[in-house]
Structures are given as C-alpha cells and as structure tokens.
User: Fold these one by one.
Assistant:
Number 1:
Amino acid sequence: MFRLSQVVFLGHVIVVDQSAHDNGPARTFTEHDNCVSSIQFNRSKDGLELFSAGTDAQLRSWDLITGTSSNVIFLNDCFTDEGASAQEVEDSAACCVAVAQQPNVLTPPMAHSISINQSCSLLACGLENSALLLFDINNAPGQSSSKLKTSGLLSGHTAGVCQVNFPVIWQKAGIYEELIISGGSDKRIISWKSQL
C-alpha cells in the first residue's frame, strides 16, 4: 500500500510505502519541469497509479510499480482554434478540444488542481487560464496504466481555477448525483453537473 508523503517544489513527487517499517521513499518521480501543484491516486488501479499536474502545464500519470511516467499530456496542446480541421484535432497528442479561443490567451494553462470522480472514469483539471478541462480515464482491465483522453472544457471562471473536487451529493433512496465543484481566483465557486 502506497501513501503520498510530500510534493517538493522542484517538480518531485515522493511516494512513501506505509507498510515499510522505516517509511522511506518507495518512489521519487522527477519528470515535471516545475512545481507539482496537485496529485491524485487512481483508486481503480488499487492505488498503484498516480496522476500529477503542475505549473509546467503538464498532466502525468505514473505507474508506481515500474516507477515510470506512463502518460503525459502537455496542457498547452489541449486547445485548438474552432476552425481547426478534424485531422488537426485528431493528430493532437491530447485529443484537444476545439474552442473559439483559449479562455485566457495571455495566461498559460498551468494546472492548479486535479480531482477524480467516484467511479474513476473522469478527471477534472483546474487551470490558471480560467479553464476546467475534463479527461476520460480508460481503466482497461489488464493494463497497468490508464489512458487519458480530453473529453470537454468547462468555461465559467474569469480567472484561474484554483480548486476542483467531485463531492458526492446523496439524494433519496441512496441515488446520488455527481457534481464538479470549482473555486477560482475570481472569488467564485461554481457547481457543474458531471458530464458522464
């Protein structure tokens, strides 16, 4: 069983094995180019996969067994002009979403916060450019790592999205509605219906 210990400013993610007696680092990941601002374990992979995002505008997934970065998305590549051809969109490494223009074109899409929904099928990423990007998580059985595909863009904030979360809102008869809650530097909290 792995337990996250700390995120270090220089782009290091240190994971500690809580079953070890000395609680020494089990893995140290150093591939981020700048500060790591948010991390989440993928519960569908028995906690053996970790997602991280940072001010280097990268979203990464890590295989905790092999210690490798199994998936990297450069968040700058997630935006394309509305007039882009289908082939240009398909050729993008992150399967970008078409938008009329990047939400805040002067601000890079540095990641502040990521969150995974209860069913581990959707990851939300709050960005400095005021966008909230959604990624489908493909948790195929037998694969050690998940595949991420951009599935949508939520626009509503006018400044950086500092926090994102998937709270579970219980309703009658044990049925729940999954929401996305985001908070931003624009002093707004927005509730979104999850697009599943």
Number 2:
Amino acid sequence: MIYSSGILIALVIQCVALISLTGPSVQAISPHSSYSSIGVHHPADSSPFDDIREVDNKLKFYEQQLCRIKAETERLEKKKEVLISQRGKTTRVLSPNAPKPIGPYSQAVMLNNQVYVSGCIGIDPSTGGLVHGGIEEQTVQALKNLQAILSAARSSKDRIAKTTIYVTDLAQYAVVNKLYASFLEQGETTGEDLVLPARTTVQVSALPLGALVEIDAVAGIF
C-alpha cells in the first residue's frame, strides 16, 4: 500500500509517542550494550531467556500498535474518498421513523455537509394519516418527524441552521411557538451555548392533507 507523506509522518510520530510511553528508547544493540541501555531490566537472578521474553513482548506491543494505526489510516482514507465522491452530489435520506413521502420528493437530501429537510406535517408514520387533535398535537408530531429525519441524516436539532414554519392560522401560532422553543431547548446544547436557528413563519391558505402546521429545516451534518 502506498501512503502519502503526511500519513507516513503521522505514523512515525505516533510510533515515537508510543515508544516514549512504554519505557526508555531502544538503541542499537551491540555485544557491549548493557541491558539497561536497551530498556530491558536485568535483575541479578534473571536468565537471558527472561530478557528475550521482555524484548519480544515489547516488539509484539509495537507491532500491534502499528497494525492499529495502519487500520485506522485505511479507514480514514476510505472515509475521505466517500466524502470527496459525495461533494456536489445529492444523497437521499429515508427514515423508517418518519412518514413516507406522499409526492415526488424525498424526506430530505444531503449535499455538501448539509441536509435539507422537506416540510414535516403531523402525520403518524404508523398510520399514514394526521394525528388526532388540533394544532398542538400536529406540531408535536411534526417535530418528531423532523427529529427522525435529522437523525437518519447524521444530524440533530442542535445543528439546525434555518427553519420555515407554515401555519394556516397565525392566531394559533403562540401554541406552535411554545412547542417549537421547547423542542430546541431539549437538545444537547443548552443555556447560553444554545444557538437558535434562523426562522421564517408564514400563514398559508392550506397545507397538504388539511394539516394546520408544516415545518421544514436546513441543518449541518456531523
């Protein structure tokens, strides 16, 4: 396998770090070298076989570390190739925990480390119909569907950059706003570190399936 100079340098640095953590540095061995000079402890009552075993154990340890480093390097190289191949290419997101698309669109698509989530309404994935109740129940379900799609795209509510909320009656928006705020505050980031996403809210004359609220989002990917 051919490694780039950067990877080889990283391998050498990690090997040196490992050696420095496991004992004195290993020097060239000559017939006149002392046991202590090569990092081997030689008690008076030990035999040469004990010293050989100690050296063998260190060699095995270093070999294991090198194998792990090489394996991790290969994994990262493959991941890099995948990311490069996906750059500028849209990838479909499909979560089994969110409603299937009811038209010619995807639940979401990923492009250049971002995920674009289609509008989510209060559909229960298990029934394919709107949840029973009013705008409160529909908002809760719409946010659940949004969360499921974000998770499937390796994202989260903490990485949402922009949302758009559509309602059929702005007079009921206070209910939606309260539930939306609670949804964001329950993420991994809280308090002063919480960055609320940008948002647009509009009133529309009607929404698919007679829904009362719809929410779409754009978010970053881990």
Number 3:
Amino acid sequence: MSFNSPQSKSQEEKWIIILGILATIILASILILFVYRLARRNNVVSNITSTKAVLSKIIGESQEYLPNVSELPSGFQLDETTSGPGNITNGNDYQLTYTNPDFLLEQRELNVFYTAAVFDSISPAEQAFDSLSNPSAYPQGGMSTTQESLSIEEFTNVDEVALLFGQEVSELGTKAINYILVFRFQNFIGNTIVSAPVDNFDDAYASQIRGRLRKAVIYYSSLIINKLPVRPLHVNIDNPVLPAVPLATKGSTSLGEAIFSDDFENSSVTANKWSSLGGTWLVENGVLRCVANGKYIANSLPHDNFKLQLDIMGTEVVDKIVVFHTVNDNQGYGIDFRSDPYNDLVLVKSQPGNIGQTLQTGSIQNYNNTWYKVSIIVMDNHIQVSVNGQIISDYLDVSSPIKGGQIGIGAMLHDNPASAVYFDNVIVTNP
C-alpha cells in the first residue's frame, strides 16, 4: 500500500490549510494584544504627563497657604489692621501680621509677617522673586539689608530661595533686627519676616538674637512649606525660642557686662574661643554638636562671680554636662543634666583625691530631642542652677570653695551613632 495515494494527499492538504488558518489567528491575536498594550501604555504616559501638568501650577487662594494663629507658638495675636488681601493684577496675594505683646515673657519674636502670592503663571512669580530677594528693594531710610547665603539644599525642593538680614532704626530711635526668607515654587511666592527689638546692634545679646532669628525664620517658613506639594524641610526644624536674656531698657545694667559669648554661627570664631579636652566638636547649622566624649573649655579669663546661660539638647543620650571654675581636669565644679532613666540634675565638685563628689541632686523631667535653657549663677561660694527658669539646685559650698578657673561644656555619649549633645547661645555675664 502506497503512502502517497490521492486520498492521503487530500488529507495532508486539509491539515496544512487548517494549521495555516490557526497560525494566522494566533499571529493576529498577538498583534492585537501588542497594539492594545502599546495604546494602554501611551494612555498611562499621557495621564502621568497630564497629572504633572496639573501639579506644575499652584492653584487656589494664597491665604490658604498661610498659617493661622493656632499654628504659631503661644502668645501671638493676629493684627487685623495690617492683614488682608493685596492688589496684584496677575494673580492673588495675601498678608498676615502676627505680633506677640508678651514677647519678653514668651521669649519670642515681636513680629512675624507673612505674605503669599499665587500668580497666574511662572514668569511673574520669577519677577516677583527677583524683586523681593534684592536687598535694595527694601526701604533704605533707617534700614540696612544684606543678603546671606542659604542654598536650596539647606531648605527644600523649591525652585528658588533667598535669605536677607536687616537692621532697622525707627523714627523714634528704637532698634530692631530682622530676617527675611523669600522662596518661589513654580507660580507661588512665599515671604516670611521675623523681627525683634534690641538695644544695640553689636553687643553679645544682639548677636544671640540674630542667630536665633535666623533659625526662627526657617521655622516659620516651614509652616507654609507644609501646605505645598513639596517635600518637608529636610533640616531639623525646631520651635526656637530667643535667648532668655531680657531685652534691657535704655540705661539698664541688670545683666552686667558680657564676659564671653558664642552663638556658634561661625566655626572659625568658635575654634578661637574654645579648647578641646577630648571629644569631637562640630559647628553645624548654627549649633555646636558633640559626637564623642570630651569637654570643650572656653578660652576666657577666670572670674569668681558670673552668670552663665546656654541652650542644651541631647539625642539618644543621658548625660549633658556643663563645668565651671574648672582649674584643671581634676579640680572644678560641674552639672550633669541627665534624662531618662534619671531625670535629674546633679551638682558635682572635683578636687585632688575626691573626684566627682555629689553636692546636690535635683529632680527635673527632661527629654531627648528637646532644647533646655540652663542658667548657672555663682556668687562667692553660692551656686544656683536653673532650667527654663525653674531653680533646680541652690547650694552654699562652705568647704574649700573653688575660685577662678574656666567654664566649659561636655558630654558622655552612648555607643550609638545617633548619640549626641547640642549646645547653643552660650553667654557669660557679670551677675
């Protein structure tokens, strides 16, 4: 029997046709699926592009992006007489003025001014930023304004940012210093001004006020940033208070003459003012950070009687240290400000043969990642230590009180990369 019979050929041709049809159907299906997926991908890309186009323009009323009084620290009040909408023609703008009548008690700025503007397009916003970031745009009569360095990397992912510092003398002769922060994000402009009065522009207190206001203007600007579609400020923004030194009235000498001060705004200045006894000390963002155990001793002349004030904060740490009347590493006084699990402040005294003698311990709840204002007053053999205005230790040393020596700061850290102690606004005056 032959395998090449007419009947066999007919069957082969039939199967060839069937397989050809199936192959055509499969190829057509693959082609349809490919076209569908390509079209779907293009649609997704189109949607993404459309979404980006929407996000590329800030919309709404400018007032919506400004903080209300409840978002500010306690004590501030809205000044309605100088707040309200502006009159730009190519968008809308709004200004809010907050004032703090109890700024001395609250250790706050006297005024915080906000302006926000939503322009119809990016071009007028760029022009507005160029104008607001130019020091010459501000009133020159009785006011001096200069621009300071502030990079976008220090702020957040806005398009432009500028920082200006101003000194102002009013018609009545009163003096004030202020910081202005201006930023642009797409078609949005934010402008924040913080100000505080001073007696003199060049004394130690004004220097401390300036350092704190610089941090404050970034903090208050962050209240706008939090309402915009940008990432939060990636620097550690706290709720800064001003130095506890009261703003003295004309002719007042209640604080005495400044003996020593450092606000840690300039690393070169700090390096000349202090000597390290171990530890690693870094000046960063206007504060001093200790990241390895040791002490930092001030290069100032010894004084028997003084008032020492400074700000302290710890992260992942227990022991925050301040020393005074430090004659050498084995002779002097110190406080150990301890957080959990101790929550206390220990006054110690060291002498040859009796290192680290505890003189007094006072209880005070204190936490990591929180700033505290510490004050130490020494009058002869009387030592008084306060934290945030509360007296924690009051001691009379009747047994060989130590005189002279230096003041200093220090830390005993945990074996943890995040463990650190921060210091700021150190000032020593006559009591």
Number 4:
Amino acid sequence: MKADVPRQCLTDADRVSLRARLQAFAIIDSASECWHFSGALNNNGYGVIGVGRRVMYAHRAAYEVLVGPIPEGLTIDHLCRNRACINPTHLEPVTFRENVRRAAALKAECPRGHAYDDANTYVTPAGRRDCRACGREDKRRAKRVRNADQQVSAVLP
C-alpha cells in the first residue's frame, strides 16, 4: 500500500477482535525476537488479515492495535527486514521514501552483480547509489554504438 492511500480507522470492536487473532497467529522467534505471522501471506511475503469486509496487512493491523494509529502520510517499516513480522517494536512509521532508502541500503550488489563498496559506489545528489563499474560499461557500450553508426553512415549514401 502506498502512504497516500486513504485509510479507514479501526473500530474498538475491530481492535479487540484483531488483538486476539494476531496473538493466535504470532509465532515468536526467540533468536530474532520477530513475531512471525503464521496466517495468510501475500505473494510478497507480507501477512494479511481480514477486518470486516476488507483485508489489511498484518503488520499494519498489529501496529494500529498495539501502538496506535499510523500517522497520516507515513508507512510502516520493518526494522528487522522480515516482512511477516508483526512485533510492534520492530515496526516504525516512516515516509515511503525513507522506507525505500533503508531497503536499498541493505543491498550489497548492483543489479549487474558489482559490489556496492566505497570505491565502486557514487551517491547522486538525490541520494541514490549508482555503480561506477556499470557507468563505465554503459559509456563504453554507447561509444561502440556511436562508432558503428558513424561507420555505417560513411558507407551508405
């Protein structure tokens, strides 16, 4: 869910019912202290739970029931990076941008497999990480294409 999607508030009856159901679905991992949601998971690994006639993410339901309403314009970040975790101490309301930034910071390699290390990483003014090795490869590829185009243009009338 995006942070700008309108939210419907939980009623007191929803909160009581959800608290009991979340407790029944929580499997506590003593090593990580995650409360793994053992109910239904969506294709992305997030727990989902029915509330009346709608479905909510289990971590959002847990936060609203055990902590309070999620502030407007914020989304819930899993500090433990476990999408099925519903432990409220592992959940933090942040902006969507911050949530994406935190997730990206955990990636050790670029999509082409080069390491994100100090020597190979350029941080753009917007805060995005770029791979220097990929940048060099892209420039070489573009130069080869330009040279090939120039050779073809010279031969064709």
